[in-house]
Automatic annotation (TrEMBL), chain A:
It is a multi-pass membrane protein. Residues 91-309 form the ABC transmembrane type-1 domain. CDD domains: TM_PBP2 (cd06261). This is Sugar ABC transporter permease. InterPro entries: ABC_transporter_permease, MetI-like, MetI-like_sf.
TrEMBL record, chain B:
This is Carbohydrate ABC transporter permease. The keyword Ribonucleoprotein does not apply. Belongs to the binding-protein-dependent transport system permease family. It is a multi-pass membrane protein. It comes from Saccharothrix syringae (Nocardiopsis syringae).
Amino acid sequence: MEPTGLVVERAARAKPTWRDLRHRWDTRYAPYAYIAPYFLLFSVFGLFPLLYTAWVSLQDRNLLDGDAATFIGVDNYVRLLTADPYFWNAMGNTLSLWLLTTVPQILFALGIAQLLNRRLRGRTFFRMGVLLPNITSVAAVTIIFAQLFGRDFGLVNWVLELFDAGRVDWQAGTASSHTAIAAMVVWRWTGYHALIFLASMQAIPSSVYEAARLDGANSWQQFWRITVPMLRPQIIFSTVIATAGNMRLLAEPLLFNPGTAASTGGSDRQFQTAALYLYEQGFGKFDFGYASAIAWLLLIATVLITGLSYLAARRIRTD
Amino acid sequence: MTSVLERPAPAATPPRGRRKRAVRLPGPWTYAALIAVLAGSAFPVYWSLVVSSQTPDKVDSVPPVLVPGGHLFDNLARVFDESDFALAMWNSVVVSGTITVSVVFFSTLAGFAFAKLRFRGRSALMLLVVATQAVPTELGVIPLYMMMSDFGWAGEIHAVIVPGLVTAFGVFFMRQYFERAVPDELLEAGRVDGCSSIRLYWHVVLPAARPAAAVLGLFTFMQAWNDFFWPLVVLTPENPTVQTALSTLASGYTTDYTLVLTAATIGTLPVLAVFILFGRQIVGGIMQGALKG
């Protein structure tokens, strides 16, 4: 093999035909041409804007001032962190909504996956059913839920009255509005996570459960001592994905209270998230510098919270 | 040569979860619980259909009506008369269609290079693709908006299309697929016959990619159709996509929910149709852990 290869190569070097040249170019450079569109487009429209946000955040830059930008260092950050109660309010709401969405999402998804992990008739039907919410658009869902959670004619309040529980003005309070918004997010994403869990549940060998049953473990114990620990990698994945998404909620709070002051997230900013505050400052007040600083603080907060939830999810006991 | 190229080897099916599983026969309670979950999943969609087929005064009544009425077509006509919804639908079709074709094309091309071609820096570049999957690019909206204004694209649907033309996820997804599904021997045979890599891509790789490309395409279409934040920022109410038109409709002084939810229903129909036709493949894609939200 070796000598022939050398001979061929020498022959090629001696008299490179057009065909050899083309082949050499093809194997050496064509791969770069194939991956170039991705890297080009992503760098220009994905990565560059994100990095440039850092530069804009150090400026006093208002779209309405004819793009006159002045470098002001970390002033935007200082103002946000020390003199802007609305920012802290938005961060608090973000954290509250993150907790109210992420934890129920994972728990419900585990329960639904457990139900689906049986020899069901019409498996595909059930699986598609639980995924249905995930394919709907966030705008449509939020508007539908806003109607369902309406104060006067909403279905939720009507049901509450049937049970003599009294009406709730869902948008008015902090706790009630967070509950309603969390319901939308949980509704939309639980099925997706359930399917991810289901896939791994199906890979757990039944002998493990049989052994546990012989040891006298009931199904509740089997679920917490075997299923959940064995799903640890998927639970970590889902927690991280859900956290990254839920820290950036914007459409839900924006459309929950459609109207002239939508970007404040309620009359008292009771459900204004950090992403919505970014939107208000950037595209309501055109304060691009300030909005960019919010973007970076939100990014940092997201990384921190994602890291923390990763650590928390990793603590699931493995036997 | 052609005989080789015309019959690409059947794609190796990716390994599934072990067949032996914790089998528990479902009792009536399991079905009852699942049907309750399903009812909860479907209810908001059903409800939007109920409201969109009623008159406004019926919707604002206690107790609420729970079954569809007969005014769906009146409301449909009103949506198209009273708003730019036809334009919004057309824009969404163009945006989602273009993005889907482009993502599938560039992802299969780059995925092929990463999976089957040898070149310097390949693993480092692939690592970069994987890393960029985690980058929350929507936090870069401010400079992105400034760029689009500079290009004179603000308010135009190009501004929505161009940033969506490639995704890190698509490249990663196709690479994973090609590594298993396209045998190296097949490509070598093509090489021996003097095929250039672009012809290999076109005649061997792309046909073999069909099942995975379909899943990627479906998923991309749905995401592009449902995208809200960036179109909201860069488009004007005069030139909307379906999602931004919905937000405009919902933000009047008083919200006419029959009108808005009729629009929401229409706007959901395309993805619902795709889902009913290809739900099995989409579910399969998620269950293989392949599709990321």
